[in-house]
Amino acid sequence: NSRTTCIAVAAERGFVDVVRLLLDAGARQAIPREGTTVYDTPLATAAAAGHLDTVRLLLETGVDKDMLANTNFKGRAPLAWAVQEGHLDIAQLLLDAEADANQTCALGSGVLLRGTLGRTPLVWSCEEGRDEQVRLLLESGADKDRRGPCTPLGAAARRGHLSVVRLLLEAGANIEASHPNDGRAPLWLAAAEGHYD
């Protein structure tokens, strides 16, 4: 594939020894896709695929801080990929390396990406009902009331994730914060989906 690099492919497949070999040979961690300024970084591909050892190696070899924030062709940074795919251990590593817990998805207009614009790692985690990820992100400074396509509390309430709703409320999330597009509060969103608990 001429749109990605050897090191990104090796990272995506978890070939940590190949990644190490390529880094030792001087491979660059970020080369823009042909005709764009969008990167498929090894860090993003390894984070999305859940390869902890590869992510650790890339971070230990001095990944540029910009790579923690760099979004790939789907508009997601490595932390967003890790939480979306449920890789808590990788999310922890990235947060320890100072990834931004409040970075939003940069794209959202394509058919496959519709509605992703503005989502934060916390919103992804709330939508999926991942308690431990929500706890980790809150402890790392994620904004519990940040609005994107919805608030974290609205996302959890709409999906019926009661344990996540409780975590957010214990953290002081605003129960009155309405959905930015339609003005509906989390309680309304939960009731509309039949989540009466």
UniProtKB/TrEMBL annotation:
<protein>
    <submittedName>
        <fullName>ANKRD50 protein</fullName>
    </submittedName>
</protein>
<dbReference type="InterPro" id="IPR036770">
    <property type="entry name" value="Ankyrin_rpt-contain_sf"/>
</dbReference>
<dbReference type="Pfam" id="PF12796">
    <property type="entry name" value="Ank_2"/>
</dbReference>
<dbReference type="Pfam" id="PF00023">
    <property type="entry name" value="Ank"/>
</dbReference>
<feature type="repeat" description="ANK">
    <location>
        <begin position="74"/>
        <end position="106"/>
    </location>
</feature>
<feature type="repeat" description="ANK">
    <location>
        <begin position="38"/>
        <end position="70"/>
    </location>
</feature>
<feature type="repeat" description="ANK">
    <location>
        <begin position="151"/>
        <end position="180"/>
    </location>
</feature>
<feature type="repeat" description="ANK">
    <location>
        <begin position="117"/>
        <end position="149"/>
    </location>
</feature>
<dbReference type="InterPro" id="IPR051616">
    <property type="entry name" value="Cul2-RING_E3_ligase_SR"/>
</dbReference>
<keyword id="KW-0040">ANK repeat</keyword>
<dbReference type="InterPro" id="IPR002110">
    <property type="entry name" value="Ankyrin_rpt"/>
</dbReference>
